[in-house]
Design brief:
With 492 residues, the protein is of the alpha+beta class. It contains 18 helices and 16 strands. The chain has three domains: 94 residues, Beta Complex (Beta-clip-like), CATH 2.170.270; 133 residues, no CATH class; 168 residues. It is globular and about 75 Å long. The chain binds zinc ion (ZN) (4 copies). The site of one zinc ion (ZN) has 7 residues, from loops.
Amino acid sequence: MEPESMTRMLCLHLERNQLSNGEARTWTVQKSPLGGRGLFAVRDIAVGELLYVDAPLVVGPRAQSKHLPLCPGCYKTGCPLFPCDRGCGLPICSTVCESSSTHQNECSILKSWKPTCGSSWSMDLLRALVPIRALSLDNQQRELINFFQSNSWPQRTSELDILKKNIEIQPEKNEEEFMARVCSVMDTNACETAAFVGKSVTSLRGLYPMIALQNHSCRPNTRHYYNSEQILYVLATVPIKKGDEITMTYTDLFWDTKLRRGHLAATKHFFCNCSRCADPLENGSLLGALRCASDRCTGNLLAIQPLNDETPWKCTECGLIMKNRQINSIRSGLSSIVEEVTYKNPRQMMKFIKNELSILVPATNYLMVEMKLRIISSLGKTDKFLWPDLTRDDLTIKEKYCRDLLSLIKTLKWGECKMKGLISYELYRSLEERDGREKRLIQQFELKGDDEKQNLLTTAVLILKNDVTAPENLPTVISVTEKAKEVDFNQA
Ligand SMILES: [Zn+2]
Ligand SMILES: [Zn+2]
Ligand SMILES: [Zn+2]
Ligand SMILES: [Zn+2]
């Protein structure tokens, strides 16, 4: 399909979901140097600007057991579920959900196939719900699905095979073919989205045609979030110039080049050759650096040609060359050491960083970064390590690690990315806790550092507002600061 017709079809999709902003549209579809087609900016776009809003063509439960069971009507989990009274074989939480519009189509389709689970409900049917839901799409929407079909690797249709084992009457051939296509399109293009039910979040998968066209970059220029109705918002994290490709990431950006490229090759079937991947210094972050093996040398081992999978590595100080094979065995040794620690509590992890990891790898290494991130996300937030449980030292370390990661984000030029919002908020909370304790101690209410705290909170709110996964206590509006006054919080 030509880029122009693709643009037209996406506009139609947005119009029917009342999400189109007509002539003011920021994007267009073009052939991408990154491969296939991509989204491109049609004008200069400022940091924080909304690029587009998208709705899923089809959305529903994820197939993995840890996300199931749930009610297909309201996506509630962990509640009593009953077999749908109409005999579709799906579980349901209430008569309201049973007769909800979300459930009507799938209910009658499934009933016509005569589920074999009798008067009970079947988890297998729940797993296959997304392709079943896709059968309600009209021709225009099916055409959009067809566009995303990829023929370059084998189709995975396990949900469909499971479905067929659980029904008496098999679907018609063309319906089966279409469902198989949906399975494989979901496999490569679906996004993890979420439903907000009461106070808990249910993870779902959805096919969002706009974001499915965004290609990967290891230095993406957008962030995205979902509201509680699974509507997707995509915003610029850095200034985007007219004609620039609009990108996102398909991998963990805190990983080093070898890990990112390996992960992209295994899960998305391509080799990333972006400027970050090509740079042995990784834009100055040295995330992949290993300690030199020579005695008393303080240099770093870095890949000579990061885009070549077999590249030798070289020490920045003494010039020692290590074969790729040797590097691989060092790396796998290190990751198994770290793997063991990830199940431990944050204080044990801190001890591990101090006594072991800091001796094994340079401070810039991604294993160190991963560990710090884990510690930040446990301190103040997990059982036995809630804010009142933390010692003064715990707080100091959390604060330091937050600052380390914020400075890494700056080095890598990720702009106003979601991670910056989350870590800014964690740093703000640490400072707030520390100041709260000092206030209690010295009965003094004017403390230094309030400007910094306010700035951190402003950053966090600007990045995370409206995001369904934002921290629970994040204020929706920040009290007046100069920066905040300029911003319209109702936008986006
Ligand atoms: Zn329900
Ligand atoms: Zn039903
Ligand atoms: Zn890359
Ligand atoms: Zn050396």
